[in-house]
Amino acid sequence: MVEFIDTELHSISIHFVGNKLQEEELSLSDKDLSLESGIRELLKNYFTKFFKELPIHRFHHESNLSFNETFVYAREIFEEPEKLHFNSVKLARHLFEKSDHPNIKNGEFYVVYFEQVYVGDEICDAIGLFKSENKDTFIRVYPENNHYQIESDQGININKLDKGCMIYNIDQENGFRVHVIDHTNKNNEAQYWSYKFLKLKPVEDNYYHTQNYLMMCRDFAMDAFPNSSKAEKLSLANDTEKFFKEQDLFDKVSYQEKVLQEPEIIQAFEDYKSEYLQNREVEIVDEFDVSPAAVKKLKRVFKSVIKLDKNFHIYVHGNRDLIKRGFDEESGMNFYQVFYKEES
Questions:
Q1: CA distance 327 to 194
Q2: Each residue of 151-167: pLDDT tens digit?
Q3: Helices (H), the chain
Q4: 193 and 268 assigned to the same domain
Q5: Do 244 and 190 belong to one domain?
Q6: What is the pTM (predicted TM-score) of this model?
């Protein structure tokens, strides 16, 4: 858990990073930014409010961590915070060199130094790297003489953060502890922020294991039984989510006994898991402390709705035996039967 209650924004530098492939410019500031206290506090809240509960990553490199440029520049900033602007120029140039995909948008690049961040039981400084790629239109109304004027302008919405990275000055020898956000590029070919510029690797903690196992179980429920109805698939997925919510410690045997239950489903799960591990670069362990933050974060992937044409939505939250699927030969249409005791 990370807290920014007593955190202070110490210094900030801003540059403009274009798309190198599109022959856009890299525009570097000649000094860091001087801020009034009001805007300083506003920016601190804007930059930090998205980093409460996220999976932990670390910098890495295939051969040696010293070859990871972002890690090296971050380490130099922590060693000499007064040289933040000097190293922010290096970081901007590094980001520009990695901006070589046609889907990458240009934008302002911020390098920020924060003091007094609470990371669990530790207090440390942190470096924030942020990039704003999308602009919103704002309307400004203001008085002029005895009437009002109205005009529009383009600016950054402080309730949205396109790209962000928070580097905590903890565990330097293993690549620091890092949180990362990328809300703009979801396609593999465009994920340059996390994998090319930052070059991060997940830390294999309880959040990581909970996330991986939940996603595998969800995919198993939705993909392993193509002849099952959507209601049956959603019911199994919902039973899985409920199991994780109720457990402090996950172990595979308990999950199979309480959720999967039937021997043929358990065997199908084992077969699916073996294939899953062969096809994906993830670590799956069969016993770990469940991370409530990971379960909460992944709730959105456990969608419990069946959409029937454009007429009806059925939300499935519980007993799979109370909803049955059939086919009406007279109308030539599918139907669901839903059994219940009370209507509200």
A1: 48
A2: 888 888 888 889 999 99
A3: 37-48, 69-79, 84-98, 192, 206-223, 230-246, 252-255, 263-279, 292-297
A4: no
A5: no
A6: 0.77
